[in-house]
Amino acid sequence: MRRLRHRVPWPAWIPLALASVLAGTTLAAPAPAHAAAPAAGAALDPAHSSVSWQSPVYAKGTGGGPEKCPDAATDPDGTVCARFDLTVAVPDGYWDDNPEGGVPLSIRWERPSDDFDLYVYDDHGKQVASSAGTADPEATVIPRASGTYHVLVVPYDVHDNSFTGTAYLPATTDAGDLTSFSGGDGSYTIGAGQLTARADFLKGGRLRLQADPSGSLSDPAGTAIVRRQPALQRHTSSFDAGDYYGIRSPQAVLRVYKKPLRFGLYKPDDRTRIWQEDKPLRWSTGGMRQSLARGTDEQFFGGGEQNGSFSHRDRTMYVANSFDWNEGGYNNSQPFYLSSAGYGVFRNTFAPGVYTFGSPVTTGQQERRLDAYYFLGDAKQVIGAYTALVGKPFMPPVYGLEPGDSDCYLHNANRGERHTLDALKIADGYTEHQMPLGWMLVNDGYGCGYENLEQTAKGLQEHHAQLGLWTQDGIDKLADQVKAGQRVAKLDVAWVGNGYRFALDACDAAKKGIEDNSDARGFVWLPVSWAGAQRCGVLWSGDQKLSWDYIRWQIPTYAGATMSGIAYNTGDVGSIYRHDAEMYARDLQWKAFLPAVMTMDGWASDLTTGKPADQQPWRDGEPYTSVNRKYLQLKERLLPYMYTLSAQAARTGVGAVRPLWLEYPDDPKTLGAQAKYEFLSGPDFLVAPVYEDSDTRDGIYLPKGTWTDYWTGRTYQGPTTLNGYHAPLDTLPLFVREGAIVPMWPKGTTSWQTRDRHELDWDLYPAAHGTSRYTLYEDDGVTRDFAKGAAATQRVSVRCDAGGTTVTAGASRGDYAGKADARAYRFTVHGGTAPARVLLDGRPLPAGAWSYDAGARVTTVSTPSLPLDRGFTLRLVDQGKHR
Question: DSSP state, 410?
């Protein structure tokens, strides 16, 4: 049986790693090393600020979770699992403005190489905190602690080892009055007693604000996240406004208030607030928070992957790695948020944090320092500035945007002993069923190795797919594996550990390892990460169990991740652990409009029968096979559109999957409950997944403009809400924006390698007024030559007037390996009546070159092969017109 170490769904809580030195009175002095039993318990209250205790020596581990621990009566001395009762008694409101938000709890082993897990339960038996990664110390926070808690430490894999447990009440201190102010040329130093702060104005309209009560400024993150520090914006000046000093840059004024020290950022007029501290900075034993006044209608987004949400006003957002793969989890979170007030902020740290977007807004990390970069502009500008700092989204290979397949074939396979080359039989299935396949993970690091690597890679390439491998415990073999044909690397939690810096370093290293040993682009997947991971990997939301809720909460998750510059965030098609044919088909439909997707095969059981159920998209037979094929082939056809969005993301930081608010920020309904469960794929496709056992979808919100039903051609005028939309199993509610220009590969395409390079289709939705424009991006799809300029663009515009519709296609500018010299075009033009004639560069096309479908109101035009180095004009002349 496959043992999924650390791949379990932990409940949502606050897993805040701590490494700070504990201060205060120790209630129970540590017992001598190798004591026979831990202390039974202790209290934390205003008279007792900290406690520590010592465990017995454990000769070996349990090899499992809490279920492997006997009850306390059977194990009174804690010889199998360690127990400690902690009673917390604090005044009402103690946690309301405390940077750490609860009692920090840490377990440190005498020898840190061993592995163990930590769980905390309240007096009712509910788990309220846990830590089950691979760090030492293992640490967490008991949120808003009050009452008695039962701490359980499970020695998972230990060898004659013991630990020391510690917990403390964090005390708080506020910044006092300003005591010094100096500086110029873009950099200013501020003092308030022992607190030292510095404000650096940076090129690009960015501000870095640092503060530290130790009196000196440190930078623990170094160059790990921000690899290149922006240059100072030296054109600044300061002035004394009485209550505050003002620092003026071309983009903003920073106010430095004197009594007490507070900060505020204003527009250049020094009157219009961007953000304003309502209280001084507050720090505690191991944390610091900033408190801001909240605007009347101010909205908040970001935080990386926040499972189940994309908008955070009146919510508490946790920034850490919780190993909770389900709704409420945040394993790919980032210490960044953006505000509708026109700014965003990134905390340059690997410390976890808690952000509460109430009134006031309080944001804090688990460290006694502030290191924040502020960005100005609208949401897209802020995302662009943030990713320019931590790394723009990477440019994936084109096969990375095709579906992936993952399974364990050698050793410990859930489907019986197999061989790595058996993966080729699965690839045969994709080919036989005419379903696209871009890559395969053919092993699992948890007991599943590999053999015949070169033969497997070659066999997959014959199926137009690339070899991927799972990495559990490092990448020391990556160079040889890449030389043997590996092009995809998946990093599992035992390798990326608790996330944070470890995960980011792993992601960077794996991408580099592929690129150092081939001419390919690095293509890396990882389940836990941190700020900066967008530059190197696809973030994957982990191991989940299938349900209709599973489909529902993922929708805002991946759209919301885009608000932190994460261009590739996804989950398993149909989950990993359970299978149902209808849910699988519904899940696959909408995930066809995510850039990156994969199936996890070999671990699921059928929801009805309980029997093992593989998850390839043809396994359930008809009608499911045909439905799944329909959407996989549609995804393949749309790759020119999605690939262009990837190129845009690499340039702007804005990914393809977007909440409606990002494109329609002036529409408050895009923040409503209905719009939460739909998203935009690029600016043009509105996707409203079916996430219930129903053939009807209610509450589909369409923003302003004209929207066309992709399947029927029916148009709707927004803003409006659709109820009772008929959506049988084969129908994903899908709408296209007026003015959309969508490039597509020819019908029947199943691989980027076998597509007809001499044909390109354009699906057009002309706007009733004005001109629509689109720029197609193309390169060789696999090498890194694009970074040297080996790419091409082609501009297309569509304009309607009183006489008809004009399509103007420019020449393809630029070159790359494999670029065709000429190609034919197939245009589908939606709306309107049958044209009287169709002109190509002013000359009529023969009647057989175009047709009109009155039911769908679509004109289809096929051109002859045309040279790519010259543009052309297509004119659909309305009936009764002579132009």
Answer: B
**Token pair listed for 492:** 């599992």
| pLDDT surpassing 50 at residue 106 | yes
The whole-angstrom separation of Cα 613 and Cα 599 is: 12
Q: d(Cα 646, Cα 760) in Å, to the nearest integer?
A: 19
Residue 175 has pLDDT above 80, yes or no: yes
Please say whether the beta carbons of 753 and 431 come within 8 A.
Answer: no
Handedness of CA 297, 301, 303, 306 (dihedral sign): positive
Place of tokens 């061993």: 114
What are the residues facing 875 on neighbouring strands?
A: 806, 839
What is residue 462's DSSP assignment? H
How far apart are the C-alpha atoms of 208 and 229, rounded to whole Å?
Answer: 10
The arithmetic mean of pLDDT across residues 213-233, rounded, is 95
Q: What is the mean pLDDT of residues 703-717?
A: 97
- H or E stretch at 208: strand 206-212
pLDDT digits (tens, 9 = 90+) for 844-859: 999 999 999 999 999 9
Identity of residue 730: D
* SS3 category, 759: strand
The pTM assigned to this predicted structure is: 0.92
Q: Which amino acid is at 221?
A: A
How confident is the model at residue 502, as a pLDDT? 86
683: how many CB neighbours lie within 10 A of its CB? 15
Name the residue with higher pLDDT: 425 or 495: 425
In this structure, the strands spanning 822-830 and 734-737 are unpaired
Of 811, 812, 810, the residue nearest 779 (C-alpha): 812
Residue 32: asked if its preceding bond is cis (omega within 30°), the reply is: no
Total residues found in the chain within this entry: 883
Pairing status of strand 734-737 against strand 700-709: antiparallel
User: To which H or E segment does residue 548 belong?
Assistant: helix 548-561
The angle formed by the CA atoms of residues 710, 713 and 717, to the nearest 5 degrees, is: 95
Mean pLDDT of 467-475: 86
| Rounded CA separation 452/220 (Å) | 44
**Pairwise CA distance, residues 145 & 102, whole Å:** 5
Kindly state the DSSP code that residue 200 receives in the 8-state scheme: E
- Which residues have CB under 8 Å from 857's CB, separation 6+? 713, 830, 831, 832, 833
The pLDDT value given to residue 130: 82
CA-closest candidate to residue 400, choices 529, 511, 513: 511
Q: How many CB atoms lie within 10 A of CB 510?
A: 27
What is the sign, positive or negative, of the torsion defined by CA atoms of 158, 164, 165, 168?
Answer: negative
The Cα–Cα gap between 615 and 617 comes to: 6
How far is it, in rounded angstroms, from Cα 132 to Cα 688? 36
Cβ–Cβ < 8 Å for 797, 773: yes
Which of helix, strand or coil describes residue 350?
coil
Spacing of C-alpha 82 from chain mean position: 36
In this prediction, residue 881 has a pLDDT band, given cuts at 50, 70 and 90, of low
Prior bond to 137 cis, omega within 30?
A: yes
With a CB cutoff of 8 Å and minimum separation 6, the contacts of 584 are 546, 573, 574, 615, 617, 620, 624, 628
Residue bearing tokens 């354009």: 762
Mean pLDDT (the chain) is: 92
pLDDT, residue 20, reads: 31
The CA-atom distances, in angstroms, between 703 and each of 378, 382, 403, 664, 669 are 19, 23, 30, 7, 8
Pairing verdict, β 822-830 and 759-764: parallel
CB 568 within 8 A of CB 715: no
